[in-house]
Amino acid sequence: MKTTHLRYAAGIVLAATGFTIPALAQDASTGAALANAPSTVLKAPPAPEAPPPSPYQLRLLYTGEIWNNVQGGIRTGWDYMQNIDAQLSVDTERAYGWTGGRFFIEGFYGNGPSFNENFIGSVQDASVIDVGRNNMARLYQVYYDQHVAATGTDIRVGVMDIETEFGITRAMDPFFNGAFAWTTTLDHSGEQLNGPSTFPNTSLGIRVRQKITDQLSIQGAVLNGMADLPDSSRAIDIEINRQNGALAIAEIDYTPIARTKIYGGYWQYTGLFDTQNEFNDDGSVRQVWGSHGAYVGAGTRLYTIEGPRGLDAFVNFGVADDRTNEVDRSVNAGLTWTGLIASRAADKLSFGVSTAHAGNPFQQAQIAAVGSVHTYETVFEVTYRARVNEWLTVQPDVQYIINPGFDPTLKNAFMFGLHFEVGKRFGL
């Protein structure tokens, strides 16, 4: 995929200063005069009402990541990746009087040698913006949302990233490694079809969420099985046919109390897949229709200091059909402490561990091909997310990956990185 070498490094230096202005002493005579003045003199003019937010919201975001693989993996060395993202959201009620509707469009340009492909070689990608090649431009999401308050129904139609909707909890948000986005089994479920529909490749579909009670909801989605087209240079591709099939996914969510969520889901592909270790009489790889899997997970608040400050935990477990999938089960768990420092109430300190298991057919195929294979790949990640101001966020990150790619020829990889975001939201 990407083979270019990094020829430069980047650094960030941040400084913050503050000042105070001493209060001016009130003159005694002035105080007396004000005390005897008519009440109208003392009344401040009414504050002007804040204008309603614009129905058209544009968000521009530049993300950069500096990585250094210190040991192990494919090779050691530095890498720099960057992503330019633009989002346009239209509130149809404020714009056109159409209650409960929203149009959303998002595109990005990703650039830089793939850190995972060139340095690590892991099953679970270390970076959140790694597109797996030197550069990629995508019309990433284009959809319409309709919320019907009377029935508690929400419908989304268009090209979408289902990772933002299924198998997630808030405590996962700070992590970079793909192991903590949802479950690794689901993340690798449609690789043969360039899927599933998530960053950087997305597909056309429909998602429906139904609120049953204040604590219980269900949601489901059906999408084209092929997410874009592999190695396509076009902004977005939609190719619907029987061979690609469809991806169907359903989830039930239960939130018994605030900051607690329990969920379970099932997914099914209908397209044509290569098996991991089955062959026809002529020696060709046997193909079968369909692939499936399931997941369960939970997130909860363990300890609250005040407001949003406190400790949250999450855990996810996923399984997949090992006949067609490289990873047949995975588990990840983590902790996120929000506002560990009182003066930095929005900062997040997170620690997570994830393990992916190689399915038996894949193991057998690797042993036949190269003589050996590792059974597990395990990821440890520690990261600290700090919002410096309204337009700048900085986040250092450290990861250690055991048995990257299940490959016995690769040593355990240790890496550290610096992620930063520069963004601004505009009302149009």
Question: What labels would you give this structure?
Answer:
mainly beta, Porin, 428 residues, 16 strands, 6 helices, 9% helix
Which CATH class applies here?
A: Mainly Beta
What pattern of helices and strands is seen along the backbone? HHEEHEHEEHEEEEEEEEHEEE
Mean pLDDT: 87
Share of helical residues: under 10%
Overall spatial form: globular
In percent, how much strand structure appears in the residues? over 45%
Q: Main β-sheet, in a few words?
A: 16 strands, antiparallel, barrel
CATH homologous superfamily assignment: Carbohydrate-selective porin OprB
Give the strand order, joined by hyphens, for the main sheet. 1-2-3-4-5-6-7-8-9-10-11-12-13-14-15-16
Distance between the termini: 39 Å
Which consecutive residue ranges, at least 5 long each, have pLDDT under 50? 1-44
How many independent structural domains? 1
**Count of DSSP H/I helices:** 6
CATH architecture, by name, is Beta Barrel
Structural class: mainly beta
Number of strands: 16
Q: What gyration radius follows from the Cα positions, in whole Å?
A: 25 Å
